[in-house]
Model the fold of this input.
Amino acid sequence: MIRHTFIILLLFIGMCAWADEEISRDNKVVSGHIKDAETGEDLIGATIYVQELKTGTVTNVYGFYSLSLPPGNYSLIFSFIGYNPLQKKLELKEDITLDIELNPAKTMLEEVKVIAQKKGEILRKPEMSVAKIEAKRIQQIPALFGEVDIIRAIQLLPGVQFTSEGSTGFSVRGGSPDQNLVLLDEATVYNAGHLLGFFSVFNNDAIKDVKLYKGDIPARYGGRLASVLDVRMKDGSTKKLGVKGGIGLISSRLTIDGPIIKDRTSFLVSGRRTYADLFLPFASNEDLRDNKLYFYDFNAKLNHNFDENNRIYVSGYFGRDVFKNDFAKMILGNQTATIRWNHLFSKRIFSNFSLIYSNYQYLLGTAEENDPNSFEWSSELEDIGLKADFTYYLDANNTIRVGAQALHHFFDPGKAKGLGDNSLLDEYKQPKARALETAVYLSNEQKFGSRFTAKYGLRFSMFNNIGPTTLYFFDENYDFAYEELKKSLDFYNTYTGWEPRLGFNYILTEESSVKASYSRTYQYIQLAQNSTAGTPLDIWFPASPNVKPQISDQVAVGYFRNFLQNTLETSVEAYYKTMQNTVDFKDHASLLLNKEIEGELRFGKSWSYGLEIMAKLLEMKVGKGSMNGWVSYTYSRAFREITEINDGDKYSAPYDKPNDVSIVWNYDISKRLSVAANWIYQTGRPLTIPTGRAVIEGNVIPVYSDRNDFRYKPYHRMDVSITLRGKNTEKRFQHDWNLSIYNVYNRHNMWSLNFAQEEPDAANPGTGYDTYVENVYLFGIIPSLTFNFRF
Amino acid sequence: MKKNIFGIIILMAVIISACSERVDIDLNDENNKRLVLYGSITTDTIKHQVSLTYSADYFFNAPPQPVLNAQVKIEEWNTNKSNLLRVIEMDPSGKNDGIYQTRNITYAKENHYYKCIAIVDDPDIGGTYTAESFCPPISRTDLEIELEFEPDWGDDGFMIVKCYYQDPPTREWYLFNIYKNGILVTDSLSEKSVTDDEFYNGGYTNGIGVGYLNQSREDEKVRSGDTIKFQAASIPENYAKFIWEAQAEIQFNTPLFSGPPANISSNINNGAIGYFSAYSTAYASTVYN
Done:
């Protein structure tokens, strides 16, 4: 596979070079990078518009663009949200490099004007089911505990729902959280949460760009059914040294970035640390006073421009959660590292080569050693990958992408052992597993005239299980039947999948367009998570002879209409998705430290459908200030049908919440003062609740009917924030105070619903048989104050 | 060990400041009348009991209704289930509480099979219900306990029952019970301790904790001169699973750790709830000074 892929890529490059020569006789290329004039950061998705031809392009994730045009005189407009547009006139006689620096809009009025000048990019882009949030917008959303969080921001988008109150886990279009591919600078982040998922691993100060694909996933991505969350770190300023930070009630953060060699080499380092446990010594509960509970994380990045054809990026993330008390300890976290090399084979052929490392591990055990109960338990998942991506800007109407990816997965799902000579516990090891996930893809984005654009591509993926390992096989009742040992480097099982991706965009008028898409995706690894929110101990496991890959087919159609000179974007999207080989777990499944975990799985089908409506105000002048935000409504359903679960009848998927409304609003009243609010409404999540009871040995045992057949009250919540910036906004040292209030009207939204039994009264026989229902909620009203600064 | 692990996780969860409030909800009004059978026969020489009650709506909020006038018996079969060795008749306890007990004191034999048969006379759920259980053996040599007071746990500390025992090399599932002065302290399913020896098979237990008595509770408080008796029972694997499942359904439910609620398993036919088990027991006791 790898050899064939390599040959195909060489052929492609050769063909491109030949075509390049042929086409260059007629067309000339203008290409370059678009950057922020103040920091030198590459701008992702900046627009280049050729006035004379009414065509254009956008920069890629490295800020690069390339336009192939017939020789002539052109007027190019370069623009990006929040920046002053720049117009350049040029006489195109030969291929030229044109690097552009855009200045950030300094005043709100200027910014509104900039927005108004946008030419309805969303209408022209042949992509749908995509959401992009700028870091600046995320910053404006009221934050829980004052900790700005990109995942909490995307949970406010249509089609995206949190898995449980306060959690950074998310479900996209009814899918499971493990069906989201979360990437940080191309490296997979396997557990995107800190502290049981109440904070995400992403430090907003270190993040440049966030893009979520809910469907219509480009051919260059694969491996998950529901979505791709592509998070890109900042590169660091190539212009000047900058410091940015914040001090909050439970955490603080600091980011330093700047040039090492001006305009050529830059760095960024960023760190966070929570310190809620510093207050535990004052807790009323003595048992909590000696506890340690915190997380920290670091982001670092180094970039160097060798010349206009070669750039290198080295970036990494390291995070740890630490919990310790007198009884137990638990340490867990992610690490990622990415080395990327951008190379221009010609003005038309942009390439990127990536070497990727990702690791998630945890260790837990007893605090005491040498006790009969003492033990230590660890688990690890590690990826090492290589990617090569080529973009060929054939002409103004065709952008061809081709690439290959290989990812080696190493799973060490769990090993436990006693600590010290007195420990009773033997060593217990779940078999390690290895797998190679490879893919090649080819796609083209093709314009037909000025109104119709098609995007079509094909991805071929392959998954190989590799020895050494021990395989467990099961009979028709899922009971253990026999085991098989596989030798080292034995490619003992292979799955392959063809994954077509199609998309169309037709511009109806200057203000409206219709789009449609179809995509098939394969998922070869999944998470053994049986609860709705999950825990950091949940393990990932690969497809195998017992577990077939999950397959999804999704179609979507949408209508997009802009108003108010393109400052108000509205859209309606409908989708239908079917999934094969859906994984669920048998009743009372045992998923931790279980060598025969595959015997706990049950397989079937699932499907979801929905309608997503959104109105997004990019920016509007109001009085002396401006406002932005969005309103979205989603109607969606998600079901599963698995023979051995719920008597084989269909049941609601755990994240089936039919109605979902989000309102996000930000108002910059003046240069110094901003207010923001958001309101969320969701149908209560589906629950399995008892209908009857059996009393056994004094305990009331619930008797259930259908799975997920009940819904509790709807979830709704309003958060508000106010930000007051320093008096002189022109000074180098800038600061602001942010007061956020989460759940401002103190609604007791359900975290879990408990069916419990009264304690018996020893003096009164026959008591203790009363039962009651308890709504367990996590957060009442939560104010938080944060001081932010930068210079 | 998995229990220890979940204990650690739950400690973490305690730190999360969850609040709760009682609420009213409407449950589906279905026909919830089914037979609930729960009982056992053990290697102890006693009168063994089987309880027959009716299940009810979840908010029935009263002691379970007993099943009266049933005919209950236990058959004893040899190791390979080829010969019926005897039939042990059971009679109502005489208290109209749905408890049926063996007519005479008797005991189960290790490695034999036992089948409980209950013939229920009821217009809705009447019929013959059966359940079968193997009686696994237990090693009775070298079982000892000692008590250790842990003052830092809870408000008044915990008394830990530590067990010394040579686990045999075969795979076992154990049920542990604690008696104080002859009275069963672990008298509900939620208080039972059930474990398997997967992580220490064939090892010497060397003082592992098998019982934790909360000294804030009067029925568990251990005073000088009290006799603490420890029962170790070797139980069938499926009976261990039944107790684990029941405990999972009883305990606090959170979106972090709890899987979807589900009905507990049963080894009784005809849709009855509960479990009939045979098991062998071993004892050790100590006097606290």
Observations:
- Chain B touches chain A through 84 residues (CB under 8 Å).
- The CA atoms of residues 158 and 214 of chain B lie 5 Å apart.
- Residues 2-15 of chain B form the longest helix (14 residues).
- Helices of chain B lie at 2-15, 237-250.
